[in-house]
Records
---
Amino acid sequence: MRITALAGGVGGARFLRGLRAHLDADPALAETEVTVIGNTGDDITLFGLRVCPDLDTLMYTLGGGIDESQGWGRVGDTRTVQGELAAYGAHPQWFGLGDLDFATHIARSQWLGNGMELSAVTARLGQRWGLDRRRVRLLPMSDEPVETYVVIDDPTADRSTKGTEARAGLRAVHFQEWWVGMGAAPPARAFHAVGIDLATPAPGVLDAIRHADVVLLPPSNPVVSIGIVLSVPGVRDAMRGTSAPVVGVSPIVSEAPVRGHADACLRALGLPTTPAAVAGLYADFLDGWLVAPGEEHPAPDGVTVAARPLLMRDPDSAARLAGDALALALQLRGARG
Ligand code: GDP
Ligand code: CA
């Protein structure tokens, strides 16, 4: 069997590690190949190094090297290099980079500098984590750089001159500056994926969606993780066109994101923080949707909504959730004949 998933960072990674555990526990499913299409809209260049936070969270989590308590970064990491950078007055300091993590960014930047594509670099980094052996193929959504920017109010702007956005009191900051540096506190007015019009899906991305047996949407951020992957030209059409059932998991439980600031992201689109609003963002290709018990809502046309425990408290509960998503997908697949 071939399973393809679109994913952001922590929510996607924990779900997919659970999926792999669920598959590996069943000899009939263990041979299943999992292709993960990771969001690269969060990518940023810091200290001259290319950092791909979502790809790295996926790689470290699936490879067994993640810092579980943070959900990102390397377990047991230290901050010596970042401390030295601070001593030199080198900025920014709001983005945490561990010493072990720095090696990933240095290797990636070196190989990109030698002319390798991001997809090839990602595969090479993944070798160190045994992703192949674990039957996981990690693909960036695109080899071209895409960076998400967030439009926020600029209280310092000169409101006396009208015309351009900047003069109207708005400014755009890199997604990471808003999310990490500002804790997503300034209300987001809009998101722009800079570079998306010129981006093409990385090699293997469209095939993985079109030729999958099952497509899963982990409970990743619907706007700035999965939404960005879907906006790579061709990806959404492939999702609409695939014959595989598409099953998603709500990242929203009790009208709040389980972690992070998905509520602030949905608000920017004028949407409430509800599982139904998230399902609505996927309505043109979604077949099945898992929500928390008691949060069943009228399904968009053609979507089967099912209630299951949605909290990934540990690897076992994540495996159960992934198993539930897969079971729904296989049930929908069976029903299609
Ligand atoms: P990020 O890139 O690190 O922000 O990670 P993702 O985009 O992959 O996932 C973030 C989303 O995962 C957030 O909107 C969370 O609400 C959701 N999430 C995190 N943990 C859980 C969980 O245990 N269960 C569910 N259903 N969603 C979760
Ligand atoms: Ca992310």
Note: The chain has two domains: 2-143+201-335, 147-194.
---
Amino acid sequence: MIQLKEHSFREALQNNQLVMYYQPIIKVENNSVVAAEALVRWNHPVLGFLLPGEFISELEESSIFFDFFVWGLRTACIQNKSWQDQGMAPIRVTVNISVQLLRHPLFVQAIISTLRETGLASNWLELEITETSAMQDVEQSSLTLNQLKDLGIKITVDDFGIGHSSLNYLRNFPVDTIKIDKSFITKSATDKKDLAIIRAICCLADDLGLEVVAEGVETLDQLANLTMLKNCLVQGFLFSEAIPAQAFFEHYQSSFLI
Ligand code: C2E
Ligand code: MG
Ligand code: MG
């Protein structure tokens, strides 16, 4: 892990060094793109192109985490609205959020203002929360997430299955989508246990009326197992990695689909 100082995060935000890439989420059943996950990248002036694994945890612990969130949310909403204005069939944009945000007094207001300013309808925004993050304060998290739900915003539980509290999460929070962690998908073509777990999650989601996304689909063998499952959306390098917004716009109708 590279040691990066707080001021360089601030500089990154001020000097437009951060950029959002987008990865498609696909409904195989009818070969359509239903959503795009916004994933940040950093064009660092000295270190080059950095992926979130190299800086995101430090950034989220820094004093600019809220400014970063607002930047990411705004960027994704502006982009989605712009795609719609350019005639692309409407899709949801999903934005990853960190744990501290659910307790931040300005969190919900920032989302309301951003939607208003950008003109994106709330049903085209989805927030991705990792399992381990929200459980730290169930009452507060639940209150905040219900406020978002009332606004028409969708909630995804990201990296589902690897945290400590998956089922509690579904019981306490107004979840719309379960995103199965990619570690289950990776071995699903060869490991019966992983495939059984994926099947069970899909059954549970079906009973609860939730959508499922299988994340990290890289091979046709993995895809073959997943397409047999009802309502399973897929995301992974088999279709596309995260790419710049313009490339997403150019490719969304054809190249993502296999
Ligand atoms: P995540 O939200 O679980 O995002 C999925 C990660 O899996 C992305 O990595 C994506 O590029 C990668 N991925 C997708 N399909 C495949 C595949 O088929 N194979 C493999 N090997 N990887 C695949 P990325 O972009 O490096 O992001 C890593 C994590 O950083 C994200 O995990 C998310 O937790 C966090 N992150 C990214 N952007 C943001 C952001 O704007 N805000 C916040 N708070 N966190 C972010
Ligand atoms: Mg995510
Ligand atoms: Mg994930």
Note: Residues 158-159, 179, 215 surround magnesium ion (ligand 3) (CB under 6 Å).
